[in-house]
Design goal:
transferase; PUNP; EC 2.4.2.1; alpha/beta; Purine_phosphorylase; five-stranded mixed beta barrel; about 280 residues; glycosyltransferase; about 25% strand; globular; Rossmann fold; 8 helices
Length: about 280
């Protein structure tokens, strides 16, 4: 049995420490890329994939499903490769970014451990910072499709957590004010909002969107919050950025569709990818 298949099985075993699988994944990445450690990780959601080519020079590219604990992506439009990228910063220093492709969503039914595995692997490679991006529905008419929004806070409506047992983690300032301020030095016009994660895979009903708005949400989607919680637990600083790909149900006069999300991402891709690359270089 290969290391990958054995590790995948172990991740499904509740008696196995998921951090052991993350360390095995990090070892695989170090060996496959020739880069012993990474500094910053990126999880690129719908519309954000083009940023990888703009961040720096790609050192190596790995099929994500070959890394212990990862599976093939189940959603069209989500990258299936993980890249190690050499980033030259304005002060002349060099950092290495790990771009994780093939994000696992909770609605895929593969378990919360797999949802959190990407950020835990990033922490095991040495990353102290993670940038989590997504495509989402917007609750404000002023935020048209293609608008990037910094995540200030979140509402977890999935009914679960990425932490296990009596693991108590303070989520105050989960989405780093320091990193958000750096992002605003790149684009002072970036708005902020609260992101609400639903389980999915169905889109939210108009009543659910209204409920989320009454609870304080500005954005709705199906990813990010469980990864952010796991990242904080692993000791990483978190920057979250959403791309409004559509107005949410009940706000948009049009029926929602996944193709609409992909098309909005394709249209906004060059602009938001350049923005994200500049932010990562500045972090």
């Amino acid at each position: 049995m290969s290391t990958t298949s054995r590790s995948v099985g172990d991740l499904d075993d509740p008696t196995t420490d998921p951090f052991d699988v993350a360390r095995a994944a990090a070892d695989h990445i170090a060996e496959a890329t020739g880069v012993p450690g990474h500094d910053v990780a990126l999880v690129l959601g719908s519309g954000w994939g083009g940023a990888a080519e703009l961040i720096g020079d790609v050192v190596a590219e790995i099929p994500t499903h070959e890394i212990p604990g990862f599976a093939r992506p189940a959603v069209a439009g989500h990258a299936a490769t993980t890249r190690s990228i050499r980033v030259e910063r304005p002060d002349g220093s060099v950092r290495h970014a790990l771009v994780i492709g093939g994000r696992t969503h909770l609605y895929e039914g593969k378990g919360v451990r797999r949802v959190a595995h990407g950020v835990r692997t990033a922490a095991a490679t040495g990353c102290e910072t993670v940038v989590l991006t997504n495509g989402c529905g917007g609750l404000h008419i002023a935020w048209r499709p293609g608008q990037p929004v910094l995540i200030r806070d979140h509402i977890n409506l999935t009914g679960t957590s990425s932490l296990e047992g009596a693991t108590f983690v303070d989520l105050t300032d989960l989405y780093s004010p320091r990193l958000r301020e750096i992002a605003r030095t790149v684009d002072p016009e970036l708005p902020e909002g609260v992101y609400a994660q639903f389980h999915g895979p169905h889109y939210e009903t108009p009543a659910e969107v209204k409920m989320a708005g009454l609870m304080g949400a500005d954005l709705v989607g199906m990813s990010t919050t469980l990864e952010a919680i796991a990242a904080r637990h692993a000791g990483m600083e978190v920057l979250g950025v959403s791309l409004v790909t559509n107005l949410a149900a009940g706000i948009s006069p049009q029926p929602l569709s996944h193709e609409e999300v992909l098309e909005a991402g394709r249209t906004a891709g060059p602009r938001i990818s350049e923005l994200l690359a500049r932010i990562v270089t500045a972090l």
